Here is the input.
Amino acid sequence: MKKIFILILIAASYQSYAQVNAELNKLILQSFSYYPKIQELNKTTEIAELKVDIARSNYLPTVNGTGTYSYVNPVSQTVIPISATETKKLQFQPNNNYNVNAGLNQLIWDFGKTKAQVEKAKADLLTTKQTADAAKLQLASQVTGIYYSMIYLRKAIQLQDTVIAFYETNQKIIEGKINQGDALQIDLINIQNTIDQEKNKKIDFERQFERQVALMTFTTGQANSPSATEFDFTGLTSRELNIENNPDLMAANQRLYGAQADSRLAQSNKLPSLTFQASAGMKNGYQPDLNELRFNYLAGATLTVPIFQGYRLHKNAVVARKSIELNEIAKTNTTNTLQKDWQSAMADLKASEEQLKNTETQIKASNEALRLTQIRFNRGVVTYLDLVFASTNVQRAIMTQLQYKYQATLAMAELARIQGVKFWQE
Here is the structure.
């Protein structure tokens, strides 16, 4: 009980601190009700729940109603002399045979076979639930990635608009200098070429943004653009390696438990079973009136002992043992994969955070350099190429900072997925 209480507290703490903004949370919940794969897994879970009930039903009796009719000819008969001059035909079976009854079969003892079936069904149910949870977590991470990709691309488009506006302003300055004889026509051609290049970059960002909109529609059924403007993901609860709550690993554990239950079931099939039978009904064929329907009943027990089944039971047991070995290997592979993914995501997060610190200085320095270069360009001290170089440095620094923020957000979302954190609120 104490362990259970501690686990509940841990789960509650995860729910308390793992959260995302309301808009993203709504999109994640919308994806759960819209995405067909999740609906498929939900139906699979419902079927698995029914299979548990079916396995338990083996403990209950079965009652069947039966009605039969058969015509038999010839039938056994004899002639009995009644007097010196008279005889009577005695028939031992009627030509028309009727039998209507209700029968009951109740399992008394099967040496754990039904229990093994129930355990196997329960393990399968838990496996399907964990698989559904893993799919939800994967989908939530996917929606999170799409959501912040749209924010990143929208910021990139806004940055391109600023860059294009900057060059267009300088284009007008160059046109004025040409009229004054202080610039060449080649300068105007160069800056127009630069503007076209920046516009092409913007078009590429817009294309990527539209693709993300299509992905958001595919996963959630909604094509709305995020209203948020910052990378505000706060779903990561810890930076320590902890994969015990990862649903993929939990599903691997459940598959292993299911294989072990299947092995116990295969072994129990070699054991006997004891069944009670009873029936009651109406039938004819009783002397002295063979055609009269009379009440009858039957009660008994049957012991079934498997002796030889063509090696099927032995082969099933071998297959079950191999299945356990296979699932143990699969669990190890899942564990190793999650550890590898964790290390990769942590490396990405740490690198992005360190790089973000460096970009602050770069942006300040490049902005100041651009300001001075713009003043010197207006005075005719430097060339247009110097201005383009300074502007490119600013653009590159701001875009790099934006990319690092985006990469850090994706890394945190991936770490939350690996930890098995349900960072949405249902």
Observations:
- The radius of gyration is 40 Å.
- Residues 252 and 330 are 7 Å apart (CA to CA).
- The chain is about 65% helix and 15% strand.
